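Minutes, project check-in
Item: structure for the 649-residue chain
Input as provided by the requester:
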Amino acid sequence: MIVHGPERLAGQGLSPDQFHSGNRAIHALLAPDGVGHQVDLVLTWRAAHGDQPAAYEAWSTRGMVRFQRHIADDGTLRFPVLEVVGSNPLENQDPLALATLADEHAASAAGGFDADDPHRRFIAPEQQSYPFGYERVAQLFDSPNAPDLAVSPRDWCSGAQPGTHGALHVRQARAPLWFSGPGVAIGRHSVAARAIDIAPTCLAALGFPFVDGSDATGRDSSERGVPPDVYLARQDGRVVEEVLALDAGRPSRLYVFLMDGMHQTELDNRLARDPAALPNLRRLRNRAAVLAGGSIVNFPSITWPSHTAICTGTWGGHHDVVNPSYYLREEGRTVSPQGLSMGTEGYASSAVESIYEAFHRVHPHCITAAIHAPFGRSARHAVLEGRNLCDRARVKELTAEFASDMNSRWPAEHPSVASESVLDTRGVAQVVELFTRTDQPPPLFVYHELALTDGAGHEYGPHSEGLADALAETDLRIGRVLALLDELGLFDDTLFVVSADHGMAPQDVSLRANPTAHVLAAGLAAEVAEPLIWLHDLAVVVERAPDGRTGRVIVAHNDVDGSGERPWYEGAEVSVSTIADTGARSPLASGTTDVNGRFGFATPSNLTGADIVVTVHADGRNDRELLLDGSERVFDVRRALYGTSVTSR
């Protein structure tokens, strides 16, 4: 076994200089007198300290678990548990849990909620599952862009919209997943895949060649001593062999329908209860391999990182778009790919390969299209990346022609949903224009983002009539695409994927909950972009001369700059006191650090380092308090939360 990760450690997680502020933040998020009733999990990676090895941690009000990620002798990833206090909050990782609406009803009722009210069908943490939970937590902290702490709210405790997503648990993290067309084993399969499995499964079905790329361990096949065995430059996912039947023939092109935010149980229930509904999706499902457990998406289960994971076969911790917005430590600023909407390819790591790039590697002259996809690196047509192959006038004509697809309720009730409907209409217009051009071949790969289901799920709720209408409207648009491919004779040789970028859960809108931001109310200095937290800390070293007559404090920024160094912190306020057995303090010295981050002071030679306490304060940074012997008074979060510092098992 080899202990593995974080892969590119550059400040993410909790370093020893952050143990005190990190523990304070964990307690602030889980304490009953704060937002503990809204928070399910607080997640981090903690560096080694004392006899405790470095490990990933998941904290909750019901207990905590520490675990590591190992590369086993057979080259697979393993996640041994090192310690549990109370109950292990990630113990249930059943990938098939809550896979049906009936399952959700039962789980909601078991938690004491009103299962018959779709707007309050909440599910408590004790009834949740966390599929691939250890892996999905660990991957996040591989990126230098990753936070110090990540928060996974309880099912109903995030935001003021009737529906939302983003958490680690299965309800917000599961998307439907169908593979439809030649080369698949038609029927329902009692398996769950990960979103990162979609790209390699499609490329395997299409007969793409292996490359000497890296697998989930971050090592390429040469380093692992095996022949090329992956389809992408970095491939965290696997080929879902269970759904393939390639002896029946292979597809020659790929079309992904990504119904943003489409909750699996609502889709399945609609198809089951209304045989006349959704004829076009039903047509695809009748020739599909349907995964009962769906696709378990990236954590955080949010649009921009999830789409990038699907399109690269890598987790967010490896493609580096770790959140819709995230903090860059080396630059001291927050970036927001989702806020900009345009140009996400510029934020993603160059070490990963997009599925578009794989198509161009194998078919250099082919046309690929990202239809309003949040990530479309190297797609020949990708409006959100600034590349447009379409005739604009023709797209405008087609958009007007298809405008009647919009449900008339949107403009009056939710203009934001109407805007997404218009966006989807333009997307279909682009598809029609691209496939009917005479000056270029039709696209060989299309990744088609359909945003309406996400907007309606947010504004009306994931089990609402509004969402049902949005799904019906989306089915009309899918039908236009299928009719076009029928007309061109391309339907039968196309592998279709039907999926989503995350699930969705109803919310208690009266809470207007944003538990992640509570660390700021608790007085901690941090950068917060839901659901991630970057603590603003100081790196502090205390030293004492051998003769015991002087001491000094050396203060630096905790985060490294662009050169990889921690800059010295000038102007930090330092207070030095003697401390008696009773705890009473007597001032000894005070001042500020110089340009080299140093402050020196005299010390009584008859006192030990344990008798002298140094406090460091700087505006916008969390305070530090160390004894002159180098030890720090770290907040005991275990005792504060669980009443004990003793490991239960």
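Outcome recorded: The chain is about 25% helix and 20% strand.
No further action items on this chain.
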